[in-house]
Amino acid sequence: MRPQRSTEAHQTGDFAELVCSNSLKSESENSAPWLLKQEMRAAGCYLLADADATAVPAGHALAVDRVAFSARVAARLEQHPNITIHREEVVTLDPRAADLTVLATGPLTSKPLTDALQQITGAEHLAFYDSISPIVDASTIDMEKVYFAARWDKGSADYINCPFTKDEYDAFIDALAHAEQAASKEWENLQYFEGCLPIEETARRGRDTLRFGPMKPAGLTDPRTGRWPYAAVQLRCENLRADSYNLVGFQNHLKFGEQARILRMIPGLEHATFLRYGQIHRNTYIHAPSLLTETLQLRAHPGILIAGQLSGVEGYTESIASGMLAGIFAARIAEGESPEPAPRASAHGSLMHYITHAETRRFQPANITFDLLPPLEEDLRRRIRDKKERHRMQCERALAAWQNWLRIAVPAPVGTSA
Ligand SMILES: Cc1cc2nc3c(=O)[nH]c(=O)nc-3n(C[C@H](O)[C@H](O)[C@H](O)COP(=O)(O)OP(=O)(O)OC[C@H]3O[C@@H](n4cnc5c(N)ncnc54)[C@H](O)[C@@H]3O)c2cc1C
Known about the structure:
The chain is an alpha+beta fold. The protein is built from twelve helices and 13 strands. It has helices at about 30-40, 45-55, 65-80, 110-120, 165-175, 200-205, 255-265, 290, 315-335, 345-355, 380-385, 385-410; strands at about 25, 55, 60-65, 100-105, 125-130, 135, 145-150, 160-165, 230-235, 245, 275, 280-285, 305.
């Protein structure tokens, strides 16, 4: 629809405009973002080829010259004999249409189309901003300082509790009060829902407010003292994410450096590695676990496929990956075939598995990280202590499964067909 109608973040009318950073993340061998890109390269992904062709020096990351990148994508689309470009805002969706539709209008999907999508999915199935809690690598939690317990002993003791003394709590609140927030952008103009306040905002409302909110100690008896602590942070094992824990209710809008410093003041997390930091930003996305199949089709309207950030993935690379898959699936459907989901062992398959099977109540979009991939078998994990070696093995398995899938699911190599 650009340039006739723009969004709060886009600045040009170009295709594939990278709105913020120009990074497609790590190229370090055997990292999760590298794996995703290797799979895309193996599939002949056009956008990744364009990114590789316009790469600029960025250490271990793949960063692109954003103008040259957009220009190459535009040239590809404009010169393709089977593509006709209409620059206009799409305002309706017809679920009964005989044609296939791939909807990829991103986190800033325009209002009329959002309304149309809500009509066919149900209003409760569309989110308008992300409120993300940090995730910590389980192996970096100091288990001597924390304890497992369920509040009031109700249910199984799945939560890890990080207990605070009064002094520790006071120091934590002081640090929060002086922490630097991520620069708020004009287009964000965030209106927080009361049920989803960032912790720094809650802390500002009173010294004890967090102790009566997400840091409530009531019912969390510490087995070592037989008492409740002064305050506590609860860590919940992430459904479908191996070896990682979510800091419950700790969504925040602080700079990542500040989060690293302040969250490490939590008893037990002094040496923690964070797999994801808290964030709050505008983002339109569907509730994929209840709406989408693993082949990115709306369950209720299989002629409509959802791709990119709107489908519940997060990030440039993940959006490109999901777009490529939607293209492959749509081509198969157009040929009268059944689309074959990406293999679970691969990074693509793991992303699709996550967005379509995640905990349904508070679904949040996902970046590619190792905890989304199937873990190695228990005996292997016991034998191989070195995390790098485990990751290397997971990548090897992923790439093998992906190559097999490409042979079955994509008869003509994507990158070589006209
Ligand atoms: C402000 C902001 C900053 C971000 N920064 C980063 C970052 O630094 N790194 C990162 O990895 N990810 C970032 N993201 C997240 C995300 O990965 C990117 O937004 C990514 O571009 C999503 O790709 P997409 O193809 O799904 O959507 P987009 O790239 O947004 O493409 C969707 C297109 O659809 C168009 N459109 C919308 N509504 C309509 C309509 N009704 N009719 C016709 N066209 C329409 C839009 O104009 C746009 O051109 C950011 C997101 C936002 C909002």
